[in-house]
Amino acid sequence: MVEIVFEPEPLPETRAAILEGLIAFNQKQTGGTQSPPRNIAIALRDPARGEAVGGLTARIGYSRMFVELLYVPEHLRGQRLGEKLMLEAEAVARREGCTGIWLDTFSFQAPGFYKKLGYTEFGTLADYPPGFTRHYLHKNLS
């Protein structure tokens, strides 16, 4: 017998149980030929403060990189740092044997930026958030 319990903030052990179970299931389905997904970051660091002020986080798995988050602080924009972060992510993806990169972005963020970098839209989710659109993009690296 199990119960369904809402956790407004997931407990670490809950997330671990879900993630480990899903990874084990996926490994079984793919014949163990794929490494479990792993997270990476490419940071923008302020050397004077010794801390990250922005950057990119991504997950590598199943021969693709998924760019989860990309942020450049407003005072650093206009220096092509977003482009440099994406180019570095592509270099990392290639080194890791990825055949492509995918990501999502909102219409009020940067769909045009990614398209200029060669990403192709493969889907949208209208009215998410209300009044806007979520765009899904992919770029082949082969």
Mean pLDDT: 95
Strand content: 35-45%
Low-confidence stretches: none
- Helix tally? 3
Secondary-structure-derived class: alpha+beta
* Radius of gyration based on Cα positions: 18 Å
Largest sheet: 6 strands, mixed
- As for the CATH topology of the largest domain, it is Aminopeptidase
How many strands appear in the DSSP assignment? 6
Any idea what the CATH architecture of the largest domain is?
A: 3-Layer(aba) Sandwich
Oligomer: single chain
Q: Helix-strand pattern, N to C?
A: HEEEHEHEE
InterPro entries: Acyl_CoA_acyltransferase, GNAT_dom
Domain N-acetyltransferase: 1-142
Protein name: GNAT family N-acetyltransferase
Walk me through this protein's architecture.
The protein has 142 residues and is of the alpha+beta class. It folds into 2 domains: 1-34; 37-140, Aminopeptidase (3-Layer(aba) Sandwich). 27% of the residues lie in helices and 35% in strands. It contains 3 helices and 6 strands, in the order H-E-E-E-H-E-H-E-E. The chain has a 6-stranded mixed β-sheet. A hairpin with a 6-residue loop joins strand 5 (120-126) and strand 6. The chain is globular, with a radius of gyration of 18 Å. The model has no long low-confidence stretch (mean pLDDT 95).
Summarize this entry quickly.
The protein has 142 residues and is an alpha+beta fold. The protein has two domains: 1-34; 37-140, Aminopeptidase, CATH 3.40.630.30. It is built from three helices and six strands, in the order αβββαβαββ.
